[in-house]
């Protein structure tokens, strides 16, 4: 069994994380371009950031047997610095058609300002031009309205919902997102977003179709093992293996696979893990005690 | 050059990809535009097979060498050759546009794109403008990038100062790259490099480690007394390949000065005289010891 974590910010994580992820069966990841915690003041730092996503970070991941992909975009927070935003828009065409770039993202709304909408539109057009999927960040505040507004803007631009993955969903947004034909991703992030028990309940209600589970692990208190841990919890709560694989592997692969830049052949021959490792005290995980103890606490609240 | 490279790529690449490339080259030549060019350059990954390697027949490889001596496609993948073909188009643009575009590509390149740009330098106009970029590229810790400049690429031999050349060769020795694939390794030997190789050997020996036998290829003739002592050390303590390297150095020396070593190296010197032992043979063998 293998996992595809389609949202994780590895530039902020250590090699210990890579080791544990590989041992727990995470085979492929998507690293979205996002805010770095500290606002950037120059377009040049965006260039270096994009360069690290397509260069060194990809190389670093490969040393642990993990396939690294990324999405390129101007995040909504920094879209509010218009001078910077314009310069970043100039840079993006250099990156979006590169090998391993599986979409434009994370883009969307944060404060839901006019500037944010302007750059959401322009980047959606860029995605159309390059025929790429879009990875959407939905706002933490006023999430439901922000999510609906995002979909309105995308449809107004002419984007096909089947090529859009809307992330950070919760119980309040999921129905509208699925009803309108989008992929609905859920971020399992301790304390502030969604715990994995709630995720299990969402699956009980909505099934597995077009649902994606990711970690969004970054520079905050977060968990790069969130996807395998949630799979373990799902297994524990009686969700079928088939459905678990769908939301933790097949769905993200199908959604981002629309870019033509990621396919299962990329990790042909990699071992993955024995699915029984997910519910038998994890003693079957490769990587020793460290990973076993990390995985044994699979509840994320 | 293009007429040679196109059929080489077509021999392994998918036909629709070749059609796309042909159309793109034609479009860019009739009306060059930066943005579509960027899309095409990186978008090579959308059309070609990322695992597809380039194969070159003996005949075509000779034709290539006749055009640009030393230029080799060994180890290239389809992405690299397709991108080099696009870069040839760029060479037809006005100088400022050409240089700006190359700089932008290099500044934002992923590993395979960077390798393609460095590989294309010996085929492009205004080569004097790319010396700094090549020297800088050699600082990379990523072997694929280092190799694209150092191996099978005539650019360094044609344009590097002795200082830059020596840095490149020493780094190649450090990170264990096959020296026989460095174009001009023979012609650009110099006394400073010989001395640096000797110092490196002493450092390694002091640490109980060894040096690739190929390193001694850089010695200029006549060798210094210090290097003569080094060669004696190789005969006392080295491997069979070290002895062969010592013999290859000695074969270039005035016989009288090295006569005392001749009898210890009789078999190796015979092989050299008979043409069955050369630096290139030694390098090839060291690179792939199984075959
Ligand atoms: Zn994120």
Main sheet: strands, sense, barrel of chain B: none
Query: What about the largest sheet of chain A?
Result: 8 strands, parallel
What is the radius of gyration of chain B?
A: 22 Å
Instruction: Tell me roughly what share of residues is in helical segments of chain B.
Output: 55-70%
Treating each run of at least 4 consecutive H or I residues as one helix, how many helices of chain A? 12
Topology:
The complex is a heterodimer of chains A (301) and B (291).
Chain A (H helix, E strand, L loop, with lengths): L2 E3 L9 H9 L2 E7 L10 H12 L1 H7 L4 E6 L3 H4 L2 H10 L9 E8 L5 H17 L3 E4 L5 H15 L6 E3 L7 H6 L3 E5 L8 H11 L4 E4 L11 H11 L4 H17 L30 H9 L5
Parallel strand pairs in A: 1-2, 2-3, 3-4, 4-5, 5-6, 6-7, 7-8
Helix pairs in contact in A: 6-7, 9-10, 10-11
Chain B lengths: L1 H9 L4 H16 L3 H14 L10 H10 L10 H13 L4 H13 L3 H10 L10 H7 L5 H8 L4 H5 L2 H13 L16 H16 L18 H13 L2 H11 L4 H8 L3 H8 L5 H9 L4
The site of zinc ion has 7 residues of chain A, from loops.
Walkthrough of the structure:
The complex is a heterodimer of chains A (301) and B (291). With 301 residues, chain A is of the alpha/beta class. Chain A has one domain (3-295): TIM Barrel (Alpha-Beta Barrel). Chain A is built from twelve helices and eight strands. Chain A has helices at 15-23, 43-54, 56-62, 76-79, 82-91, 114-130, 143-157, 174-179, 196-206, 226-236, 241-257, 288-296; strands at residues 3-5, 26-32, 67-72, 101-108, 134-137, 164-166, 183-187, 211-214. In chain A, helix 8 (174-179) links the parallel strand 6 and strand 7. In chain A, 50% of the residues are buried. Chain B contains 17 helices and no strands. Chain B has helices at 2-10, 15-30, 34-47, 58-67, 78-90, 95-107, 111-120, 131-137, 143-150, 155-159, 162-174, 191-206, 225-237, 240-250, 255-262, 266-273, 279-287. Chain B is elongated, with a radius of gyration of 22 Å. Classes of the chains: A alpha/beta (301), B mainly alpha (291). The A-B interface holds A 47, 50-51, 54-55, 58-59, 91, 93-100, 130, 260-261 and B 35, 38-39, 42-43, 45-46, 50, 79, 104-105, 107-108, 110-113, 142.
């Amino acid at each position: 069994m293998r996992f595809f974590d389609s949202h994780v910010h590895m530039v902020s994580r250590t090699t210990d994380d890579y080791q544990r992820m590989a041992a727990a069966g995470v085979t492929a990841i998507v690293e979205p371009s996002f805010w770095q915690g500290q606002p950037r003041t120059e377009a040049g730092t965006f260039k270096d950031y994009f360069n690290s996503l397509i260069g060194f970070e990809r190389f670093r991941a490969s040393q642990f047997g993990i396939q690294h992909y990324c999405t390129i975009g101007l995040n909504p927070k920094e879209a509010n610095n218009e001078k910077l935003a314009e310069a970043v828009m100039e840079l993006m065409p250099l990156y979006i058609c590169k090998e391993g770039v599986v979409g434009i993202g994370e883009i969307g709304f944060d404060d839901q300002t006019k500037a944010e909408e302007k750059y959401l539109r322009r980047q959606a057009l860029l995605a159309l031009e390059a025929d790429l999927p879009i990875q959407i960040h939905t706002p933490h505040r006023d999430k439901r309205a922000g999510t609906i507004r995002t979909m309105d803007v995308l449809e107004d631009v002419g984007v096909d919902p089947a090529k859009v993955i809307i992330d950070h969903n919760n119980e309040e947004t999921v129905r509208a997102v699925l009803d309108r034909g989008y992929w609905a991703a859920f971020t399992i992030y301790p304390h502030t977003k969604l715990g994995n028990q709630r995720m299990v309940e969402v699956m009980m209600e909505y099934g597995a179709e077009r649902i994606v589970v990711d970690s969004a692990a970054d520079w905050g208190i977060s968990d790069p093992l969130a996807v395998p841990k949630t799979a373990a919890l799902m297994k524990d709560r009686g969700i079928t293996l088939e459905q678990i694989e769908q939301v933790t592997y097949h769905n993200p692969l199908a959604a981002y696979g629309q870019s033509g830049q990621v396919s299962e052949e990329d990790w042909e021959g990699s071992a993955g893990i024995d699915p029984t490792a997910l519910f038998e005290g994890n003693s079957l995980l490769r990587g020793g005690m460290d990973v076993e103890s990390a995985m044994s606490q699979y509840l994320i609240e | 050059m293009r007429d040679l490279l196109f059929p080489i790529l077509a021999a392994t690449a998918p036909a629709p990809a070749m059609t796309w490339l042909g159309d793109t080259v034609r479009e860019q030549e009739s009306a060059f535009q930066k943005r579509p060019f960027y899309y095409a350059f990186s978008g090579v990954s959308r059309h070609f097979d990322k695992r597809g390697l380039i194969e070159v027949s003996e005949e075509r490889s000779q034709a290539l060498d006749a055009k640009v001596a030393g230029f080799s496609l060994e180890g290239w993948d389809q992405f690299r050759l397709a991108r080099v073909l696009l870069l040839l188009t760029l060479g037809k643009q006005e100088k400022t546009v050409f240089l700006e575009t190359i700089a932008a590509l290099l500044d934002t390149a992923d590993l395979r794109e960077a390798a393609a740009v460095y590989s294309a330098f010996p085929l492009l106009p205004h080569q004097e403008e790319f010396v700094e970029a090549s020297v800088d590229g050699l600082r990379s810790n990523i072997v694929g990038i280092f190799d694209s400049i150092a191996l099978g690429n005539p650019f360094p031999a044609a344009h590097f100062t002795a200082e830059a050349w020596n840095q490149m060769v020493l780094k190649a020795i450090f990170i264990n790259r096959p020296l026989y694939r460095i174009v001009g390794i023979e012609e650009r030997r110099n006394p400073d490099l010989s001395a640096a190789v000797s110092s490196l050997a002493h450092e390694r020996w002091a640490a109980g480690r060894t040096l690739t036998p190929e390193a001694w290829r850089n010695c200029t003739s006549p060798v210094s007394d210090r290097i003569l002592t080094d060669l004696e050390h190789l005969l006392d303590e080295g491997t069979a390949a070290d002895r062969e390297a010592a013999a290859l150095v000695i074969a270039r020396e005035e016989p009288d000065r090295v006569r005392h070593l001749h009898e210890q190296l009789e078999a190796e010197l015979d092989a050299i005289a008979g043409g069955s032992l050369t630096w290139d043979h030694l390098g090839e063998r060291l690179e792939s010891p199984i075959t």
